[in-house]
Amino acid sequence: TSRELVKRDLKNLVILDRIDNPAAIAELKAINPKVTVTFYPYDVTVPLAETTKLLKTIFAQLKTVDVLINGAGILDDHQIERTIAVNFTGLVNTTTAILDFWDKRKGGPGGVICNIGSVTGFNAIYQVPVYSASKAAVVSFTQSIAKLAHITGVTAFTVNPGITVTTLVHKF
Fold this sequence. Notes:
Belongs to the short-chain dehydrogenases/reductases (SDR) family. The chain has 172 residues and is α/β, with parallel strands linked by helices. It contains six helices and five strands.
């Protein structure tokens, strides 16, 4: 997704992730040197207040942020609490935190939220019921946020891919 984004007419791409990957950042910068690519360490499982603090730093630096892509996810039904924390609670916290900056009722400019769901949010895979349930929660949460767009100015949608060859499925 980041590779495709930097090909577009962006000013900035901010990546929040647990893992610092300087080679990936350098690759993104090389694709389009006109885009400023910045990395901040971030774990979606941190409390809401910590997420808000990080976003304050980012908004102070950039002034505006137009799009949030919530793409963190794990597929490991043996880690029930972590799966829910990463796939759902973290996404809710990140969305909630950015709404404080974007909500037009609070003087914000509005924005766009893209939450990464899964086809399992609609059709559960019985072998991974916790993962499937966490993605169903993402779809439901996002639909609720989307219905408030006329009030908040924040558009929300999910992208729901099928099984994709990523590190997510290495243990599946």
